[in-house]
Amino acid sequence: MAPIPVPPDRSTTPDEPVDRPGVRERAAVPVLAFGGILMAVMQTVVVPLLPDLPRLTGASAGAVSWMVTATLLSGAVLTPVLGRAGDMYGKRRVLLAALGLMTLGSVLCALSSDIGVLITARALQGAAAAVVPLSISILRDELPPERTGSAVALMSSTVGIGAALGLPLAALVIQYATWHTMFWVTSGLGAVGLLLAWWAVRESPVRAPGRFDVLGALGLAAGLVSLLLAVSQGGQWGWGSPRILGLFVACVLILTLWSVQQVRAERPLVDLRLASRPRVALPHIAALLVGFGFYANSLVTAQLVQAPKATGYGLGLSIVGSGLCLLPGGVTMLLFSPLSARISASRGPRVTLALGAAVLALGYAVRIADSRDLWMVIVGASIVATGTTLAYSALPTLILGAVPAGQTASANGVNVLMRTIGQAVCSAAVAAILVHHTSLVGGTPVPTLHGYLLTFAMAGTVALVACAAALTIPKDRASGGTRRASVRTEAARDEALEGA
């Protein structure tokens, strides 16, 4: 096996001068975090538009829903693929490509009202889902160990921060300008993010040489499309319909054959032997459960506060007002990311993950206790955001400690993929609950408060299962509290992982 290139040792002795980083090196972490926020913003800005897009585009509501589905599918497929490509061909290069596709998709949305072009553009934007795992891998390669934990925690929090910013941003622009203007704004932000990344981020020397597994990529894409298409469209097509059942059967068959091919491949897209080890598999399972648990908060909060007052629980807020309800949660995620890094450094990331999942469950308990008063809705949503921050910051740290440096981007890509699957399943489950618990208000079917409370109970229960899964993750004997290993020591551990 080819040796893994090791970055220059950044440790110094007391007699050696400290090599202070330049402006570009200091800017790398905030620039990468800005890219993560942009990715989440791009995914959420279309949500306030969905009720009006059939009228604006002349398309059916079913066709318009594909502007969300296309991004979900392409993001799920491309995240592990681009992660593996980054490990092989250069993480900076693939990161810039992902940001470029995201920006191009936004420009196409700004230029067209044709639903076919819009769906294609949103599929291009799905490539941005790989920005976070690629950035985390770059941070591991480029930063000294004592700075990696806080930087990774911040990077993980950008998903929630961007989602909290995206809804009110889109609502404000739509309220005072046209919907095309919103996409021009996101295009400008994407161009800025791309240029900053090109300037501030340097290419990592850590590579995993070999030939790209094209067959594995195609098999994974086919299996994931079958799974997520069935999950996302089951409510519209009917869960017992031949199309949905056929997709589930196809998913099982394709992924079974794909697994056999991956085990036999010399350089697989996903190292299933490594992924099956408890220190890797359990964080992936926890990622799926946490993704399910946190997403219910984003799906339900805006709907609940926008419900008419005639329901007895709704607050009748505007789109802008409902988006602003999630903004404190985004600020909370930003403030708590340094704390999550300190907990991981002192107690270990598995403790941080378990604590985050428990806080998630606590947040839903608050939502069940009171979802009628605005301030309690905001408090409950902010507690859920806090738990999400703790859990999401711990997941990549667990992965970094369990896989060799040459596989960090692809392994974190799989972890992000598991979050995406969890979110997709949560979306289908929430829709199923709310559809079966409605009442007529002014002749219009509206979800009942009981339906929302059932949703919170479901999400809180899943969060508790995630907490239990986190506690079963084996401890990292190499960490033993505060992690102060040098880059060379980490490289030696990577060689041991490769040979295991």
Automatic annotation (TrEMBL):
One Pfam family linked to the record: MFS_1
Positions of the Major facilitator superfamily (MFS) profile domain: 28-478
Residue ranges with Basic and acidic residues bias: 490-500
Membrane-spanning ranges: 27-51, 63-82, 94-113, 119-139, 151-176, 182-200, 212-231, 243-260, 281-300, 312-336, 348-368, 374-395, 416-437, 449-473
Keyword Transmembrane: yes
Compartments, record wording: Cell membrane
Membrane topology: Multi-pass membrane protein
Major location (coarse): membrane
PROSITE patterns, A to Z: MFS
UniProt keyword list: Antibiotic resistance, Membrane, Transmembrane, Transmembrane helix, Transport
Cleavable signal peptide: none
Region of interest (Disordered), ranges: 1-22, 479-500
Keyword Lipoprotein: no
Classification via PANTHER family: MAJOR FACILITATOR SUPERFAMILY MULTIDRUG TRANSPORTER MFSC
Record's protein name: MFS transporter
Species this protein is from: Streptomyces macrolidinus
